[in-house]
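Private note to self, pasted from the team thread so I don't lose it. Backbone tokens:
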């Protein structure tokens, strides 16, 4: 078991307004998810602060590992010569218990399991 927390911060939005969801896994086997909702939308989540017991935390952690972020490039890019000036920007920052930070981001380019990412973090 880890003796420090493990945090994952996901931001998504456009036009400079980014909604943010943070998952924190604690050494006692529990976790919390906090959503900082900055954009008014019909897709606003019901629960912006959720606590997870040990069983739920294991499921959340398994869902995170299934995303395969350890194999993601640091930047996802639109292929070809297409230039898009608006749309959706996102970032994922993973802070390991030892303080190591890994970041991933994209602008109108997404990982293969994008729907699973937005489901895990509760925002899109």
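Design output:
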């Amino acid at each position: 078991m880890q003796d420090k927390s493990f945090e994952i911060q996901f931001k998504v939005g456009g036009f400079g307004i980014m909604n943010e969801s943070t998952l924190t896994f604690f050494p006692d086997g529990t976790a919390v998810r906090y959503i900082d909702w900055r954009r008014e939308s019909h897709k606003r989540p019901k629960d912006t602060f959720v606590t997870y017991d040990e069983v739920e935390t294991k499921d959340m952690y398994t869902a995170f590992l299934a995303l395969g972020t350890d194999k993601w490039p640091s930047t996802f890019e639109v292929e070809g010569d297409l230039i898009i000036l608006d749309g959706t920007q996102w970032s994922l920052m993973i802070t390991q218990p030892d303080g190591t930070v890994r970041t991933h981001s994209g602008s109108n380019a997404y990982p293969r399991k994008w729907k699973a990412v937005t489901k895990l973090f509760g925002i899109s």
